[in-house]
Amino acid sequence: MLVVMKPNATEAQVDAVVERIRSLGFSPHAIPGAQRTAIGITGNKGGLDPALFESLPGVREAIRVSQPFKLVSREVKEEDTVLDVSGVAIGGRRLVVMAGPCSVESREQVLEAARAVKAAGATMLRGGAYKPRTSPYEFQGMAEDGLKLLALAREETGLRIVTEAMDLETLAMVADYADMVQIGARNMQNFSLLKQLGRIGKPVLLKRGPSATIKEWLMAAEYVVAHGNGQVALCERGIRTFETATRNTLDLNAVPVLKSLTHLPVIVDPSHGIGLRAHVPAMARAAVAAGADGLIIEVHPCPEKALSDGQQSLTPEEFAGLMAQVRIIAGAVDRPV
Ligand code: PEP
Ligand code: MN
User: How many angstroms does the Cα of residue 184 sit away from the middle of ligand 1?
Assistant: First the structure.
């Protein structure tokens, strides 16, 4: 249920509603808006009677939320959520581009990639220090040394850092270095990790599980928000289908569907979505046209030498060429880059 306050409701009236919700044994979530404050209620098993709240001073109405996801739904919050990633806004009018290598491999590699993507117009640097690899014999990432290199690249270029946290053991450390914590596709439903992300309060990039429905994905985001962290962006990175010509099937349907169901920003990862360097630009352009709030793209100074995902990584020159196209498409949908 959502309790919507009148535009002129006082702080004391909001507090009284919060108190009433607590006294009934449920959890209140205040959602301040430009026009008015609303208070989401979670923790109730069945439907609540709107009269419980509508009689309180300052309350305009109490609305039942029909979706199973509550706090992330547009029903509960109509306005787009704009994340603040150390000063970079995600979810506002400006399109955000995150780019960099799949994995951090060395000081030279990450600095070269960072300088190149910065020069082409990216505002965030991606790079994994903890890598979820299908085979235990493949490169697993540089761990904390990799995080230190990302921090160095941030210092030099001013790019904000997005990097993956794989488990509870290393989450706090990763969050210390990162401006935004990436939760990989394979961990989308790692509920203990999601709960802890709620408590940590760093912006989160929540990737879609390879076989997760949009509803399951939104429920995963709900975990983070319900545990106290509203700074979540959703990242479409392709789903597993019967198609074998591409690594995954980038589900661009998800972009407009999500934009209608949730107020959270939507980022698209065409690199993992299609998995083939030659086709990454086409899907990046399509994502922007479909209404994505940002892109995350793998770029490597020398893709053929990459320790992971070289086959889908753009060269710095290819990335610069793509950025020029992205600016044109973004302009057509009225978004600056
Ligand atoms: C990555 O971003 O390099 C990655 C491992 O992504 P995903 O979790 O989407 O496979
Ligand atoms: Mn990768």
Answer: 5
